Amino acid sequence: MLACKSMLHSRSPVTELDGLPLSASTDYEQDRGLQETKKHLKSLSKKLSQFPDRCTLKSGHYNVNFTSSLGVGYMMVCTDSYPNVLSFCFLDELQREFISSTPSSRRPSSGTTAPSLSTKINLTDMQTEIKLRPPYQLSIEDVGVANGFTHHTPSKYKGIAPNQMLEPVSLPGIVSCVLSLLCTGLNLLRGVHAIESILQNEDEDFNYVIAFFLGSAACLYQCYLFAYCTVWRSSKSFLCLALICLCNMYLYELRNVWQILFHVTVAAFTTLQIHLRRPQGKAPDYTV
């Protein structure tokens, strides 16, 4: 298969995430750097499930670009000067062709895929996607094999891919953020008044100030968790909810029941919206 006809003879294997090869192109390129780079393909194919669904491994003057979806990985070797957007357009098209040609099984009897593929994906859309969610950059140590030696790598990729996108914002989510910002402002205002009371009366409890500002920070952090994809988002949101409840319990002498109920309800509602807004998966958009 000639993925980059004007650049080099490239190798584009298709493999399951457990490392079992399904198909691959053949080439006769004798460049030493390319041959060294292709040695990483076998190691990568056994560890695809440990990495994000779109990655790039740089090896000398070559890049190994790969994507994975639905339990199958697609890899491509090309020169480092070849645009990433064209590489991933090709891999997405390869993925489409592979799935559409094997509707009942991912294990074709033939050892090769289609002889050539034309990139049908809109380059503008792919450029936008690459900009918003760039490929995760792997190192040789991440692959686990360099110069014949095996390096220790984690058994599972931890966390999420950088800049991973969340699902579109819903109206309840917007409302929850607005209410959380309102609670943040109310807590800050009451905290400032508490500081003024302490300055005028030394007998006032300074812990009230701490409770107000901790509540403000927790509300603000919930807005951040709703807007951005981070590790352990749901767990962090529940911790924020617990902190807001504790702060309001401590402030029961300064707030009536309805005020406390309002702050706790808003925090619980925001926590729910954080949990419901999940990271986006890879858009299937396949003809299967």
TrEMBL record:
Keyword Oxidoreductase assigned: no
Localization per Swiss-Prot or TrEMBL: Endoplasmic reticulum membrane
Among PROSITE patterns, the record links this protein to: LONGIN
Give the primary localization class: endoplasmic reticulum
Recorded topology in the membrane: Multi-pass membrane protein
* SMART domains attached to this UniProt entry: Longin
| Domain (Longin): residue spans on this chain | 8-125
**BP term (GO), one:** protein transport
Bilayer-spanning residue ranges? 169-189, 209-229, 236-252, 258-276
**UniProt keyword list:** Endoplasmic reticulum, ER-Golgi transport, Membrane, Protein transport, Transmembrane, Transmembrane helix, Transport
Report which superkingdom the organism of origin falls in. Answer: Eukaryota
Query: Which PANTHER family has this protein been placed in?
Result: LONGIN DOMAIN-CONTAINING PROTEIN, VESICLE-TRAFFICKING PROTEIN SEC22A
User: What is the similarity comment for this entry?
Assistant: Belongs to the synaptobrevin family.
Q: What does this protein do?
A: May be involved in vesicle transport between the ER and the Golgi complex.
Q: What is this protein called?
A: Longin domain-containing protein
Q: Which organism is it from?
A: Aldrovandia affinis
